[in-house]
Amino acid sequence: MFVESFKITGSAVIQICLLGVLGYFLAKKNILGEEGLNAISRLTLDIALPLLIFAQLIKEFSFSVYPNWWVFPLLSLAITLLGLVVGMLFSWLIKGSQHKAQFVSLVSFQNSGYLPLALIAALLPPELATPVFIYLFLFLFGFNLVMFSLGVFILSYSKEKKFEMASLFSPPVIACLLGLAGVFFGLPKIMPDWLIKPMRVMGDCTLPLAMLVVGGSLASIHLKHIDIKAMIYLALAKLVVLPLIGLWVVTSYPLPHLVALLIILQLAAPPATTLSLLVRHYKKEDLLVSQGIFFGHILSLISIPVFLSIYFALVVIK
């Protein structure tokens, strides 16, 4: 059973990786330079993903169908806090205050949007993928709020830096708020299909664009003075301990299978690529973030199929 599950999840990860490899190759060959990568990243984060979220919520979401929708933003907070606790426990093995701060951020914040989106699309048939997409968008609503508040606080690590309230309201967060408000006020009943369809078409570009960005971002990372010990501790904390805790939770409590799948996806995901942007924005020396993102994504090519295969095998057995 495990072997069959591994074949399915491994195949899904390979499909995703091919797009990432293309982005990596384009960046390495300077076909896609830093400006081009930034442009695609902004197009994905500011336009494509928000349109995907808004159109999906307007078309598929209903407060009566998803009465427990509020659980998913809280779930994102719980997973982040779990990562924070595990990261702080392992950080005792890391020397230097800023090294510790960056290590904790790498463990606490995962690639919560791009990779889970692609994995859900590759693993599940459309009728099952649709509700998981809804779960994911609601999860991202909470995650982005935490990422741009707690994440900024951890990484900025300076009394002189003031909290930026505007950073909480990123385009995906705004899209989620507008989508929920639109459903509440009955917008799906009056919004014509000719207006929703272009949004969905543009939103469907999110997955390939996102993986190009991830691959290109990995290619642009400059690895200097690799901290091997810190990377080993990161791999253990982020890619082994957290997914193991996730497996224990989803097998110990009677959670719906699709919700449990979302939990495993989030806990098995590598560090968030957004962390490198935050380090750059707050003008902090990149001590561990880039190498953590790079090696985290490389090692997750093995860890994600392994833990997803274990999960699917356990689900079938139960």
Which key features would you list for this structure?
mainly alpha, Na+/H+ antiporter like fold, 0% strand, 77% helix
Describe, in plain words, how this protein is organized in 3D.
The chain is mainly alpha-helical. It has a single domain (2-317), classed as Na+/H+ antiporter like fold. It contains 14 helices and no strands. The longest helix is centred in the middle third of the chain and has 31 residues, at 126-156. It is globular and about 55 Å long. 46% of the residues are buried. The model has no long low-confidence stretch (mean pLDDT 85).
Summarize the structure.
The chain is mostly helical.
Weakly predicted, low-confidence segments: none
The pLDDT mean sits at: 85
Could you give the distance between the termini?
12 Å
CATH topology (level 3) name: Na+/H+ antiporter like fold
The quaternary structure here is: single chain
* Annotation field: number of helices: 14
Shape: globular
The portion of residues forming beta strands comes to under 5%
Structural class: mainly alpha
Domain unit count: 1
Q: CATH class, please?
A: Mainly Alpha
Main sheet attributes: strand count, strand direction, barrel closure: none
Break the fold down into its secondary structure elements and pairings.
Blueprint: H1 2-28, H2 34-60, H3 71-91, H4 97-108, H5 114-123, H6 126-156, H7 171-184, H8 187-190, H9 193-203, H10 206-220, H11 228-252, H12 257-268, H13 274-281, H14 289-317
